[in-house]
Amino acid sequence: MHRTVAFAVLAISGCLVLGGCAAPQSESVQPAFAMGERAPAIPFVYTVMDTEWLDQLGEAPAQRLPEHRFLAIRLTVTNGGVATTAVPLMTLLDSQNRSYPELTDAPGLDEWLGFVRMLPPAETERGRVLFDVPTGAYRLRVTNGDPDNPNFALVDIPVQFGPADDIRPGHDATK
Q: Global pTM?
């Protein structure tokens, strides 16, 4: 009995010294950054500037229609590292933690960041990434792309509509 109590005290002390016994924090409770805030995923720092919901890309006859709705996210990404590094694709997470991958082609999207994004050290790239998702609020998951030393950040993407998207009765979008 005395050994069992000593072992329990030793185990509890070890947990306290080593940083606690809590389970690792999951992405669902990971704090998120607001749009406009710097979201570090070392060596990258991402800043989401704005969003735009689109019903199509391009014009007929070459227009592209989404399965749900296109969400274009304008952002900057800065490489704070010492080497040229590929900026990884991003993912949107909905309130149920379902993930939606970034689209790898976006013909007709102005300022598209592209699929292959090599960023030299101390450089900042500006542009937009594209998703095909149901209308709603999301969290943008940005990463460093390093499978050996993963690092990520989440950015809240609230539902926002521009004046042309505001369809309230009696609303004049031209003002």
A: 0.76
